[in-house]
Amino acid sequence: IHNGVQFTTSTLVSPAGHPHGHGHALGPSHGHTPVPGEERETWGKKIDFLLSVIGFAVDLANVWRFPYLCYKNGGGAFLVPYLFFMVIAGMPLFYMELALGQYNREGAAGVWKICPIFKGVGFTVILISLYVGFYYNVIIAWALFYLFSSFTGELPWVHCNNTWNSPNCSDLWAFNNSLNDTHKSTPAAEYFERGVLHLQDSEGIADLGLPRWQLTSCLAVVIVVLYFSLWKGVKTSGKVVWITATMPYVVLTVLLLRGVTLPGAMDGIKAYLSVDFLRLCEPQVWIDAATQICFSLGVGFGVLIAFSSYNKFSNNCYRDAIITSSINSLTSFFSGFVIFSFLGYMSHKHSVPLDKVATDGPGLVFIIYPEAIATLPGSSVWAVIFFIMLLTLGIDSAMGGMESVITGLMDEFKFLHKHRELFTLFIVVSTFLISLFCVTNGGIYVFTLLDHFAAGTSILFGVLIEAIGIAWFYGVDRFSDDIEEMIGQRPGLYWRLCWKFVSPCFLLFMVVVSFATFNPPNYGTYTFPIWANMIGWCLAISSMTMVPLYAIYKMCTLPGKFCDVSLVHISLVYISLVYISLMFNRAITEPSTRCAPYLGSSVM
């Protein structure tokens, strides 16, 4: 055993029938060893794979997160750190995951047959994808609820004369200085919090109540759509993404053409693109850019590994990585024009500064944007178009996360391959049952807790361990040999340096920043109790513990004496346990201070 890789003398055969000559992983090592009588499913067409990856990576955060960050952090100047981190970390990690899945032709856990001591990180990313599914599907259910509510002559978030409205509701713009009342709220804000979420019927996370039947019905529809998109594998999901991955671009273009004709739209776009290079001297701008890169490309969820595992062995994954990651970033930039044309219109219409209406997170797409749409002629039609876009943005990202779980576990437990339909049903029903907590009267508190803890520091930790495992234990040279065997071209020096040094250092920096800047969750003025924060920390730690637990299991089951186990095995366990213990200690000792309101946070 050397660096966590167990060498054997076996010669393996690739799916294409060509021998994989290296043979140096645990048991079957290099490449995929076909199971007798079983041939791995592949994408029907190459475009199915590309659309699936694009559909997963381009999600709701591209619409509600990037444009706001760009505006807040110096406009066009923000593109400098964003593109810098994209080139040195985003693309290399994206490329690494696609190549890793395609060569080994297994899910997030199975690929670590190349370096068994790191297999725990595969279970880490599978758990994270599962946790994210618990609340991400709820966002899609909200969008579906809004879509159904839009089929009416007058949109329900226009006036304050509805049964759910409070005395504080005002048809005037809530931020207009003439009101002189910070307690006033708009009809759109009250519709979201009181009409959809029924937040007024809950006093906090300890008072959830029963699931609301309207949101439960919408959630059930989402789950049914997900099931029938995934139950037959990539043969069906590859066809669904033809609609879900392309529809957002059509709708964004239509909304942009409408938005630029509105008064004040050009002022909004100018503010979005205004360049302030002095902001680049502020560390927070670089931290925001690095964070956006980490989460926007979808690295670390196991989805890219799962999707690429269904590629043909000789597929050019290098070209795919460049194309899909570039499209993701361009989509984020393009969506900013759509968002800020409408925000500029809102600023002009209500005679308030742009920063009073500019926000990110669900507050943008469920409060600000619907309010802007409601002022347009034919508002119901525009609302239907907008929420169809949100649905399609969410569905294919949810499909990707669920496919990561299904593929990862099926490849690890081979008997499940014969029962794909039943196992998929089990996963989606389990997800639905947990998600019911998020559609109760106090469901937004559960949602916020999951959003805050499920995929924050834990996913950065997972990608860091993944990058270290490939670059320093399996070896960049060996990994480059694998890629050359697939596409006939060895990765250049730039990519090898990024994998070996730059990307791991970048991820280590992000883990430290994430840990140092952590704030307990809150929703508006509501601060979560200590026991709720403890549950959140347990959720985050539960996925990360897979790394040291599996490493310990591997050390105990490998042949030979314990003292013969490589020092790197012990180091991996030690580092993981120290990091997790530090997080747990912080969970116990952290003050219950408040952070920014949730409606300004990001999901995924």
TrEMBL record:
Residues given in the record as Na(+) binding sites: G55, A57, V58, N62, S296, N328, L393, D396, S397
GO CC terms of this entry: plasma membrane
Location (main, coarse): membrane
Ranges that cross the membrane: 49-67, 79-100, 121-148, 213-230, 242-265, 285-307, 327-346, 381-401, 422-447, 453-476, 497-518, 530-553, 565-584
Disordered as annotated region, ranges: 13-39
Alphabetical keyword list: Disulfide bond, Membrane, Metal-binding, Sodium, Symport, Transmembrane, Transmembrane helix, Transport
Molecular function GO labels: metal ion binding; symporter activity
Biological process according to GO: amino acid transport; sodium ion transmembrane transport
Topology of this chain in the membrane: Multi-pass membrane protein
Cell compartments where the protein resides: Membrane
Family membership noted in the UniProt record: Belongs to the sodium:neurotransmitter symporter (SNF) (TC 2.A.22) family.
Protein name: Transporter
Organism: Salmo trutta (Brown trout)
